[in-house]
Amino acid sequence: MPQIPQDDALDSSLAFNSEGYEFFRHRHHQFRSDIFRARLLGKNYYCVFGADAARMFYEADRFTRQGGLPTSTLKLLQDENSVAVLDGKAHARRKDMFLSLMAPCNLELIARLAAEMLLSAAAAQNGKAIKLDEELRSVLCGAACRWADLRLEPSELQALTHELGAMIDIAGSIGPANWAAQVRRWHSEKLLRQAVDAVRADSLRSREGSALQVIASHRDLDGQLLAPEICAVELLNILRPIVAISRFMTFAALALHQHPAVHERLRSDDAFVEPFVQEVRRLAPFFPVVAGVARRNFAWRDYEFRDGDRFILDLYGTNRDPRTWEDSEAFRPERFIGWSGNPFTMIPHGGGDFGGHRCAGEWLTIEVMKSVTRTLVRNIDYEVPEQDLTVDLSLVPTSPKSGLVIDVKSLH
């Protein structure tokens, strides 16, 4: 069997914390290999990147997500007993529930709500400066709750926005900040459990087809309703990713600022909106990796792997792989005009088939980003004052340092 390169550090966790998104790319380049071994948080991983590695990683039922992520990260993101950590028929049953929420009417609704609420927020701040990453987070949380049919008081919505934001911001950390975010998550889960209980007790009539109604009425393989605690977890797994779109959209606004010709073209060329959104998704530093544990022995590229081996797939690096993407670091939305799609080269939401572990919310993300992009370029006149727009790739997740401040001038 050929030798797999090994990172020399006894544990590479500190290096990952200091290098962030570039940690895996640096080593793949150093070793000139699509695979290397490293020890992270006391556990051994095979670290892989590229389209062929993604194809290997997303082979049906080859990996489980159980035990892939550190517990500190899992509890702030998908959490235990969620769809992300299920396997086999149980996973397929729960995944079908999420896919049912991606019906065209639901995608149209969330896209419209996001645009309307952004315009409303901009109108409230007309003539004032807006820190775009924070404003988009509030806008998208409000839109997500209305879309899910969660009827919250303003104070509850504000608290939920902060709690969801903490889950996203702190997911990659360990220690007191992570523990505090977990405490905030408990408060969010309690709020959502109460909504589920109200629907089941008929004291709250939820809109047919809404996330609240679908999740509260979902039955598992045994025909049993999900426990309210699990319903709350899965509702968070709808709301949190929608709020996380604010990061993509902050990078979209940064691209609009850095590429004025693109901004101008988007004003009138509607066919260019989706290629723009796709290029933002490809290049924006979002969640950098996904992890899994082998469920059986298998071979890949003449290497032999065993049941229980741990793997990390570099999403960030794969999306920028120069073997796939010509001039891979350049912002060129034109590359997506007429693009037929590839589930292993463009993987900001994971890869493979949507029936597997690829994020069901990818379609929703694209539609929301298209709607918000149109609103920014066509309905809001704004200026970007001088500020620090540097992006620190050692921070996971990251965003422009200033949060991208805009001065709203007028609406139309």
Q: Explain this structure to me?
A:
The protein contains 15 helices and 10 strands. Helix 6 (104-124) crosses helix 7 and helix 10 (211-217) packs antiparallel against helix 11 (228-258). It has 412 residues and is an alpha+beta fold. The strands form 3 sheets. It has a 5-stranded mixed sheet, sandwiched between helices. Strands 4-10-9 form a 3-stranded antiparallel sheet.
Query: Care to count the β-strands?
Result: 10
Quaternary structure of the protein = single chain
**Biggest sheet: strand arrangement:** 1-2-8-5-3
Question: Mind describing the biggest β-sheet?
Answer: 5 strands, mixed
So what's the overall shape? globular
H-E string: HHEEHEHHHEHHHHHHHEEEEHHEE
Q: Could you report the average pLDDT, rounded to the nearest whole number?
A: 91
Question: Distance N terminus to C terminus?
Answer: 64 Å
Helix content range of the residues, please? 40-55%
Radius of gyration: 21 Å
Q: Counting H and I runs of at least 4 residues, what is the number of helices?
A: 15
Low-confidence stretches: none
Search tags:
15 helices, five-stranded mixed beta sheet, 10 strands, alpha+beta
In short:
By secondary structure, this protein is an alpha+beta fold. Helices cover 49% and strands 11% of the residues.
Topology:
Elements (H helix, E strand, L loop, with lengths): L12 H7 L2 H10 L3 E6 L2 E6 L2 H7 L5 E2 L6 H6 L11 H13 L3 H21 L4 E3 H17 L5 H17 L5 H25 L10 H7 L10 H31 L1 H7 L6 H11 L5 E6 L3 E3 L2 E3 L4 E5 H5 L42 H17 L1 E4 L21 E7 L1
Parallel strand pairs: 2-8
Antiparallel strand pairs: 1-2, 3-5, 4-10, 5-8, 6-7, 9-10
Helix pairs in contact: 6-7, 6-15, 7-8, 7-11, 8-9, 8-11, 9-10, 9-11, 10-11, 11-12, 11-13, 11-15, 13-15
